[in-house]
UniProtKB/TrEMBL annotation:
GO terms for molecular function: NADP binding. Gene3D superfamilies: NAD(P)-binding Rossmann-like Domain. This is 6-phosphogluconate dehydrogenase NADP-binding domain-containing protein. The lineage of its organism: Eukaryota, Fungi, Dikarya, Ascomycota, Pezizomycotina. It holds the Pfam family NAD_binding_2. It comes from Triangularia verruculosa. Residues 1-103 form the 6-phosphogluconate dehydrogenase NADP-binding domain. InterPro entries: 6PGDH_NADP-bd (IPR006115), NAD(P)-bd_dom_sf (IPR036291).
């Protein structure tokens, strides 16, 4: 999970409710603390893992299987920066990026170009 504000945090807890371990990155410390507190309150700390960097998040995931990156961040600069940081770890033809943000604008061309790169 990339971005754990209101929507990303709740999606992480929902996934944990369904026994899906979620690794997450969010640069906003208040979002991190809120999600970890909610995970503790709902007994999901064993299924929700915070990472301070995109690299540590990717390194914690199995290298031999496809990954799903759920984006719950604003389009444009924040998404582009995350895609740029994550791109060395993407496996073409296997990994999936899901745009779960609620921006009312289309996925920017810049993000598409970064993914194709």
């Amino acid at each position: 999970m990339i971005g754990t504000g209101s929507m990303g945090g709740m999606m992480s807890l929902l996934l944990a409710d369904h026994n899906i371990h979620t690794h997450f990155y969010d640069p906003d410390r208040s979002n991190v603390e809120k999600l970890l507190s909610q995970a503790a309150d709902t007994n999901h700390l064993d299924k929700i893992t915070h990472h301070d960097y995109h690299k540590s998040l990717c390194s914690a995931l199995p290298a031999d299987s496809p990954k799903v990156f759920l984006f719950s961040i604003p389009h444009g600069g924040a998404a582009d920066a995350s895609i740029s940081d994550l791109s060395p770890f993407f496996k073409k033809g296997g990994d999936i990026i899901m745009d779960a943000s609620n921006d009312m604008i289309p996925w920017p061309k810049s993000s598409n170009e970064l993914i194709k790169g």
